[in-house]
Amino acid sequence: MSSSNNIELSTFPEHPMSQTVDQRDDNSDNFEMSSTEDYQISIQQSEMSPNKQHRFSDLERTGDQSSSHEDDDLDQEFNLPRTVDYMGHPVVLESTNVTVSWKLKLQSITCFQFLLVVGFMDQTIGSIMHYMLDYYQVDRSQLSLLFLLQLLGYVTASFANEPLQKRLGLGNLTNFAMFCVMVTCLGFYWKFPLTLMFFFSICSGFGIGTVDCCLNVFVGNLKYANQLLGVMHAFYGLGCLVSPLLSIHLIELGWDWNQYYLLLFCFATTAFTCSVIMFRNETKWKYLYMIEHKHLKEQEADGDISQEPASTTELLRNKYILFFALTLFLYLGSELCAGIWFFNYLITIKKVVERSASYITSSYWASLTVGRFVLGFVTGHFFENNEVRAMVLYTGLISGGCAGFWMFENYTSLQVFFIDIVGFFVGPVFATSMVIAIKCFPARIGSGGIPVICGLGAAGGAVVPWVMGNIAEKLGDGTSGGGLVYFPNMMFTTFTGAFGLWFGFYLLNRKKLENYEKL
């Protein structure tokens, strides 16, 4: 219960109308009243409106109270899972400790599966771009509009995420998001005209953005969030790693480029089915309950009961939200740009054969995947509650790797080494940023601010590749893709700019960030 990563359930103020809950004794058929001190859930009448006074009441507690697992303090104290009544609707409360909850383990695996599908989707266009260029008879700058329109869907999803969760709940919202991905896969499989493909890119962006926002908040509030987010985003990197190898291999076997999307449709359908099963208790009532609960705790701690949730305008004016969004914009944009255009850079500028280029590109994603997995545990073990220091270290090493990639552009083997170094340390950036933001933002800011950060930050994944696409087509020696010669310069500029932002921000806000004072 001491972990700052959890939404705790132990500190409700007292409520004069709170009720004790019946508990069946293991050695008797009789019911006994459980201790009010241990199991009472209440809301202080003097601090709440009459409507709020009657929202919370215990209905049921299930599970084995005699469990002796040392790490299961939450389950032992509150006998989770259990059901409470919130505004006339049942809400199932479950453990946030993945080491003691089998259901949470399965939910985590489902989250990993989601990010695996997202990784496949994000990297596929870069892998099959040459075939799409030939099929649609367009240039790279025109095809790069797919990235920009995916951005439109992603940003829309980020701003709509909180109101949609309030209306649908996390379970229904993730189901709908994966359905959008399924529709996109079918659209690309049927090879519609390019104008319709633009629509499917918007649909894909909305689905991916919704999944990203929902899962980052869900996993970020669990115990061992650094490790779990690291593993979850490692599966994104795994999807990006496998996609170029698998797509090129299948095309060499005789598949058309569009048939690969039928395989992705099967992956997305499996993820959709798992979502329906595993997140059925994540209703809108549970989301509202947990947000109000966390907000009440902060009000009690601050002695301020008048705070209201931040408006969209306030969120967009918050300098800390803008900082997180800008740094993620540069990092995620550069990360995806490297994965998409590095392949084309090797073929066009370095004259590497397609199969070798796919292997080299996959080495970048392999490094990123390993970095997310390994450094997630390193951050959780050595930088717990000091994640800001880890961020400064990682971003500095990324900048150094980019410098090497640019300086040794005449030596392909050294470039591969340095781009893999970049990928390794880029790996944990997104997950660690989310952990810092979740810990630092108060409930009134965090519930709406985290999706905004995800949306504005991940917009870089569309904008930076699009900018690189225009540079590739319109600059250079005038040949198709000649501007890719500036690819190393682009990577150094964006990654180093983001490092400068993090380093300067850390120096200016060192005390507040390291003490996790609310921003």
UniProtKB/TrEMBL annotation:
One of its GO terms (cellular component) is membrane. Residues 55-69 have a biased composition (Basic and acidic residues). InterPro entries: MFS, MFS_trans_sf, MFS_Transporter. Residues 1-75 are annotated as: Disordered. Signal peptide: none annotated. GO terms for molecular function: transmembrane transporter activity. Keywords: Membrane, Transmembrane, Transmembrane helix, Transport. Residues 30-51 have a biased composition (Polar residues). It is found in: Endomembrane system. Belongs to the major facilitator superfamily. This is Unnamed protein product.
